[in-house]
Amino acid sequence: MNENHVKNAEVDVLLTDYFKAQMPDPWPPCQASQTRLPRRTSRWLTFTRFAVAASVGLLLVGYLALAGMFPREPTSKINQDRNIGRHTPATTAPANSR
To answer: What is the C-alpha to C-alpha distance for residues 33 and 53, in angstroms, rounded to an integer?
Structure first.
């Protein structure tokens, strides 16, 4: 068991009783305001969103253009021969005449 819980049990009970006594017993209902704030659309906000979208598009186009300038390397350097699985005729050596 937690030693702090045992040591502070009296203080905990005292503080709990104090704060419960300070709270109103039936809690008062919430008084919600009936006024709504008007929704403002700012041209600056619209311009900012357009600027972010345009910059992301330009970054994507720039990336693709730059990537297209470099040659592609094969993913594996093993078995690059295009004749895999094909039978190549063996060359016959000339017979030695005796």
So the answer is: 38
